Each structure stands twice: as C-alpha cells, then as structure tokens.
Amino acid sequence: MQLTRKATPRQLISLVPMIDVLLILLVFFMVTSTYLNLSMVPIVDRAEQSESQAAGNGTTLLVRIDADGATHIRGQLHAPDALVDLVRSGLAENPLLSVVLLPSSRATTQALVGTMDMLTTAGATRLRLMRLEGQQ
Predict the structure, then answer these.
(1) What letter does residue 9 receive in the DSSP assignment?
(2) Contact of 94 with 85, CB cutoff 8 Å
(3) Pick from 114, 100, 116: which is nearest to 64 by CA?
(4) What's the pTM?
(5) From CA 87, how far away is CA 123, in angstroms rounded?
(6) 127: part of which helix (H) or strand (E)?
C-alpha cells in the first residue's frame, strides 16, 4: 500500500482587500488635507518690479476678493477708491500692467463683477480671473 498525499491547490492572493484599504486611505487623506494656503502665494517685490519694468516686461498686480467683497493687494485692505487710484498710477508707470483677480470661493458674483467694473473703469485692459480649487 502506497500512501500519497493529495496536492493541495495553491491559494491565490486576493488584491481586493488591499485595494479597499488603499481607497479608504485615499479618501481619508483627501478629506483631511489642506491643499491651498493663500499666504504662500508669491508676491513680487518692488525691486523686482522695477527691474522687470526696465526690461520692458509687464508687471502683474494680484487683487484678492474676500467673502464680504473687500479687496486686498499685497495683504493690505484697499477701499474701492484707493484700488482705482492704485491701478491708475500703476498703468501710468507701466501701460502693460496686468491685473489678476483672485476671488474667494465664498465671494459673491456681484462683488466680483463690481471689482471688475472698477478696474476696467480705472483703465485696466489686461484683466485676468484666477480660480483656485480648494479651501479659500
């Protein structure tokens, strides 16, 4: 009598549990992460602006619009009249001045349109709208 063991079939490793764990981790990190910090937006220094103006390049002015419609330039709050005066003086120094609007995700459309109207009234023709995804 000859005793032989039956060959047991090899168990296949299932990837489904690993994929489930990875998707749960992905969702967890997407929900808990902050992807945008607006204080990290680089701002051009006056010395760099004068160098770029001497080279003939147009400079860029970043205007942030808060949820309440207030406008900020270089981290300082500007009233509508002061914003118009600042853009007019910037255009007098450099006709190629480009104005970039960065509205908060909670800013109203009326605040955005009102700011755009003020800037075009001040003479800005190179007006851009920037939309950043994430928490603002």
Answers:
(1) P
(2) no
(3) 100
(4) 0.54
(5) 8
(6) strand 126-129
